[in-house]
Records
---
Amino acid sequence: MSKQVAYLGPKGTYAEKAAHILSKLANFQTPIFVPCNGLYSVIKSIAYNNCDAAVVPIENSVEGGVTATLDALWKFPEIFINKAIVLPIKHALISNGKLSNISEVLSHPQALAQCSEWLSENLPNAIPLPTNSTSEAVNMVKGSKFRAAIGSKSLIQIEGLKELAFPINDVPGNCTRFVLLSKELNSNSANIASFAFSLISNKPGALLKAINNIADFGFNMSKIESRPSKRELGEYIIYIDLEINNQNNINNLLELKNKLKPLCKNFVDFGNYFSENIELD
């Protein structure tokens, strides 16, 4: 049976590229790709069993963690990360009009943020307008002479528009990590372990005690990030990625988690998975 894979649509987004690549790496046979409107809708589609898997961005090298994804993973602890890829992101400015006539620039908030310096220097008077996706932004500028969208160059061919500038992202090495989500724990090879926790008490040294446990077991943290719990001011959720590079790490991982859990009010394990860098043509 073909697996249904949800992703942030519509067609033409980097998320769609990531969905195709991750489905191939997961050996899905003839997957059916389901574009969704908004990241939360993507994750709800798997949380409520409307799809078999989902592909979402989780981290950008410029803007950091994708908060909608992190919050959803905490909210739905039955969802696990199975695989991850890192895609290079190169944005184009796309429009029907001329650069000198552009007064509004539309795109996903992450894309707008990743190009903020370029926009400030080249279109200082243009109003940035957030959309649900880069592809949606391109659809919204068709036929307009004063609107432009930020998105992948592949959208130019799809929509019959033209490139006004490329690349316009502020950092040349801009890249995004996309993850494949499912309700099954990955049992294959892994080089990252991800989890999140909230502490029992907000006291001096409480977080340090948890971090020291990680160091004592010989793990290197490749990411540590905090998000508000949304329950009360000053209460945070800590998101952590650990590098797994040998069998000893894997053997110590369960013991580490058992050490951490007594320190935590809540502990959510996102699973162990393999992440790799992908070069796009």
---
Amino acid sequence: MQIIECPRDAMQGIKEFIPTKTKVKYLNAILKIGFHTLDFGSFVSAKAIPQLSDTKEVLAGLELEGIKTKLLAIIANQRGANEALEYPQISYLGYPLSISETFQQRNTNRSIADAITDVSLIQEMCVKAGRELVTYISMGFGNPYGDPYSVEIVDQFTDILVTLGVKIISLSDTIGVAQPNQINSLFSTLSKKYPEVQFGVHLHSTSETAGEKIKAALEAGCQRFDGAILGFGGCPMAEDALVGNINTRTILSEIHASGVDLPVDMNAFKEAERIASEEVFGKYQ
């Protein structure tokens, strides 16, 4: 079972710039918890996401010696991938591939066709560099733009990614529309058809429905879960109203209830929660 902590996703929509030293303190606290992966920053346009313009400086401040947690950085094009691959500390590159043409343009200023070309080339770059590409199928449970959506379309995109050699695919609900039965059905269908793929889930949700969504993914065999401490965040490229990430504590609770014990340091987790509340999300808006 893998937990991917996503403070990058939680922070990117905050307009007031969070000082680099504050980000470093928070991320170093998260690294002590013992999660599988930390989605710590992104190599994207500073104009598009000003909050993440200091990703290189943040990376330089991370205390990685003796830490098992792997680092993931989001990229949106080949230029960003080249930058990220300059840093051997980064194990995973994450690329958001949308099945909504509207959102692909809003999020990366690319068409879906161009984005698939990017994925193909970035996958080759990752293989040569000994890294792994995580591809997010964003708007994977529906979209608010009226763009076509169906399980068959998700399947088609998955098939394309598998053909390109992508082995980690995260189904992403950027706007919080996924329903538990839909989550269960989609994961069950895809995991049976593509057993060689490690499927993950990146959900945004209200706190009231978050638990049942995670439970549905667990019951369908999902092994990779994205969360954010205290459930902050949202994608500023999607809609005006940001729907938060699922609180990592909710994910941990559901996994524990399923009978799985994770090797995480809960004292370190509580300290990260405190910093998130008092020094990051409780202070900067």
---
Amino acid sequence: MTEGIENKVVVITGASSGLGEAAARRLAAGGAKLVLGARRLDRLEALAEALKLPDGAVVQTDVVKRAEVEQLVARAVELHGRIDVIVNNAGLMPSSFLEKLHVEEWERMVDVNIKGVLYGIAAALPHMIAQKSGHVINVASVAGHKTGPGGAVYSATKHAVRVISEGLRQEVKPHNIRTTIISPGAVATELTQTITDPAFAEGAKKAYTIAIPADSFARAVVFAMSQPDDVDINEILFRPTAQVY
């Protein structure tokens, strides 16, 4: 299903790898007009070349810096005159047991996983309100629905994404804006590489032996975007068939 994708102006954060890259590839194939942001500019530029994106369609973006997120969205409006969709995808998962006191990693998760989403909303919302149309897609996680030992802070950030998204959904109804939360389970990305605790990293590596390709996420994005204007897909929760957690 790609109906409704062609010519939509889509901004994706965290687009240099994993879920963001997979979404960019599938949406480009469907004819979307992409503007991509991530910290790793070399990877963004390589992706832009592979997808034959126009000059200026990538912006080096650290989502913890509000001005950089605003610049990313502004680039989309500058190039295409509007923004139809923002995919707030950038995230990290340096999970650990609370007793390890990896406080700096907790703070980084809060900054990227929560504030990064809020900055994306703040950058896109004024344009969407002015247009009387738009679609905000926020990436949460199965961990936003449940938690386990070592996952308290990461789960808290992803639960926050779901709460923020639901509040946004209710607030933007007068402006004809749609909202979607996508909550993946174990998907093959670089996410587990952000875990620094050796014992926890080993457990995550084993858990991710059943991980499914990142294109599974991209298909969920396309499904949400492809609905008729009067259909608002508010949440998609998916896992590998073999995943118990």
